[in-house]
Amino acid sequence: EKLHQLRTDDLGHNLLSVQNLLTRHETFEAGLNNFEHEGIRSVTDLKEELVSTNRANTSNEQREKIQARHELVWNNWQKLLQTSGLRREKLKKAEDRFRNIEELFLRFAKKASAFNSWFENAEEDLTDPVKCNSLEEIRALIDAHDRFKTVLEEARYDFDELKASDDSIKSLNMAANPYTWFTMETLFDTWKSLEKLIRDRDGDLQLEKKRQEENDKLRQHFAEYANAFHTWLRGIEYA
C-alpha cells in the first residue's frame, strides 16, 4: 500500500499544492527514519540472535527460513526507501517547475499592469482636443507628438517582452494567470488601439496646422491691408 501511494502520479497542480505534498512526504520520510532506527534494526538484531550458531534450539532449516524472511523484509524496506527517494525527487522537480511558472505569472502580471497604466496615460494625451491659437502652438504640439512616437520604441520593447513571457507560459500548458485579468490577446487589442490613436492624432495635428497656416496668411493679409489703409488715411489728413 505504501509503495502504491508513493508511485502515484499526483504531483500537484500549482506551487501551493505541490508544497503541501512535499510537506506530507517529508513527514512520511521522518516516520521512515524513525522506523528504521526502532523497527528495522530491532528486526535485524533479532534475526542475528535467532540464527546465531550458539542457539542450540534453532535448526539449520529454521535459520535458513529466518534468513530468507529477513532478506525479504530488508529488500522490501530498501525498495520502499528507493521509491520514497524517487517520489521526493519528482516533487522537488515539480516544485521547481511550478515556482518557475509562478515567477512567469507574476512577471507578466506586473508588466501587463505597467503597460496598461502607460497606455491609459498615452490615450489621455492622444485624445486631448487639438485647439491652437497660433502656428507656434501647433508646432509645439507636433514636436511633442514626434517625441512621443520616439518613446514608442521603448514601449514596443516592453510589449515584445510581454509576448515572450506569454509564449513561455503557454508552452507550459498552464491555465489562466491568477494574478491578472490581462491576456496577450487583450494587450494586442490595446496596442492596435494605440496605433489607431496615433494615426488619428497625426491627422488632427496636420489639419490644425493647415488651419493655423491659413489663419496666419489671413492675419498677414489683414496686417498688409491695415498698414496700407493707415498710410492712405495719413495721406488724406496731410492733404
Automatic annotation (TrEMBL):
PANTHER family: SPECTRIN/FILAMIN RELATED CYTOSKELETAL PROTEIN. This is Spectrin alpha chain-like protein. Pfam families: Spectrin (PF00435). Keywords: Repeat. It comes from Rotaria magnacalcarata. It comes from the Eukaryota. The keyword Transmembrane helix does not apply. InterPro entries: Spectrin/alpha-actinin (IPR018159), Spectrin_repeat (IPR002017).
